[in-house]
Each structure stands twice: as C-alpha cells, then as structure tokens.
Amino acid sequence: MTTWNLQETRCHLLICNGGSCMMRQADEVTQAIREEIATLGADKEIHTTRTRCNGRCVDACVVIAYPDGIWYKDITPELGRAVVRKHLSGDRLEEHMVYSFDRQFIASGLSVAGTDKAPR
Ligand code: FES
After folding, report:
1. Whose CA is nearest to atom 1 of ligand 1?
2. In a domain, 68, yes or no
3. How many structural domains comprise the chain?
4. Does any domain span residue 33?
5. Residue 60 in contact with residue 108, Cβ under 8 Å?
6. What angle do CA 109, 114, 73 make, to 5 degrees?
7. Which residues constitute the domain of residue 65?
8. Residue 21 CA, ligand 1 centroid: distance in Å
C-alpha cells in the first residue's frame, strides 16, 4: 500500500488505461509520462494515476490534467512527454485539448459531441 505526500503537487495527470486506450498505447504513454517526470525531477510537482475508462474512447489515448480540468485526446508517448513539459511551465498542449474546466462546467473544445447521459 502506497501513501504519497502530495502537499507540493501542482498537477495531477489521470492517464486512461481503459481497454480502448490500452489498444492505443496507454501503457507506453503512462511509462513515457512517468519517465519524463523523473527526468525533469518533477515528482513532487506532478502526480500521475492510471484510470479505467473515462467515457471518451473515441479520443484514445485520453489524459486528463487537474486542477485545470483539461482533457487531452490522441496522446502518444511523445505527446505525453510534451504534456508533462507544458504543465510544468504552466502551459497547455492546445492542439490536443478536448475539454477544459471553466470553473462551472466542462467546456467543449475539439471534441466529438458524444451521447447525452440518461436522466437520473
Ligand atoms: S478506454 Fe480510455 S476513454 Fe475509454
């Protein structure tokens, strides 16, 4: 069991490791992101978590960055490294952004609209 001290974390990257993303290099993306973080000595600033499906399989491989609430699509290992560098410098990988959080709702960007969720 792991219990990290996350007090200095500035960015949390959620790397989708669901089935569709795994078919689009999610494991390699995960390793590339973690290697880039280690290479840059940014373990305290950027935390990563593998997730199951995030419900945007058309965008595989999906990487989500918080607290900005940015959803990235079509992330390859090289683009995963770029995500790390961008977020460390306070920037974003604009050309792969699908959604970003505008403090009230998630705002759409370059996304396929998707299917509405059923009412509760
Ligand atoms: S498997 Fe990654 S969004 Fe569905």
Report:
1. 18
2. yes
3. 1
4. yes
5. no
6. 50
7. 11-108
8. 5
